[in-house]
Design goal:
Blueprint lengths: L1 E2 L5 E2 L12 H11 L7 H15 L11 H12 L3
Antiparallel strand pairs: 1-2
């Protein structure tokens, strides 16, 4: 979900093919389509990989997620997941 300065929000979706896509390819598409600053791409890729590591058995991240995994785990635990 994207929140705008006007107070409105918009739900967005990006397709992710587990066989063909990487977190970097989808993050790059997101940065371009949403006109995000280019420096945000690595952070978006890390978030994608951290999510996939938790939800897809055997997922191999293409970026180093490091502490991102712990943050995702802590958030999921707090949410009761």
């Amino acid at each position: 979900m994207i929140f705008f300065n006007t107070g409105k929000c918009k739900n967005i979706e990006f397709a992710f093919d587990l066989e063909k896509d990487t977190s970097l390819s989808v993050a790059t598409e997101m940065v371009e389509e949403l006109e995000l600053p280019s420096w945000s791409m690595p952070a978006v890729a890390k978030l994608i990989d951290a999510f996939l590591l938790k939800t897809v058995r055997g997922w191999r991240p293409c970026v180093q997620v490091g502490q991102m995994i712990q943050a995702v785990h802590n958030t999921a635990s707090a949410d009761g997941m």
